[in-house]
């Protein structure tokens, strides 16, 4: 598959993933916290999950595929040996962090979600949103040859 098509699919996934989290953080979460309405949050989560999770999987698949097209295979990850590999490694670290937040939210926070635990859920939401935006920004550096320190 051409790199350009992979990039388009990757960016479409990012639109859904990051866009959905921005809507959640900027629009839904303030209403939930103001009204102290857990149901509003759970309703959004249930609807968004149907498109958000496939978008995340699409980004993982296309991101790994593009990594290999750049010559950065599994054995090169996390070496920070060149600017493109640095971007890929940082994005993978952020992806793993996102997965940890998802595990925490789905197994520990959401099952016990109450008005009292809303701040913890808000922390999870804002963290994953921030990570998504950071991943988007990091990806933009690939166009300029990567990221070097």
From TrEMBL:
Superkingdom as given in the UniProt entry: Bacteria
TM region positions: 6-30, 51-68, 88-109, 121-142
Keyword terms of this UniProt record: Membrane, Transmembrane, Transmembrane helix
Protein name: Copper resistance protein CopD
Source organism: Epilithonimonas mollis
Species classification: Bacteria, Pseudomonadati, Bacteroidota, Flavobacteriia, Flavobacteriales
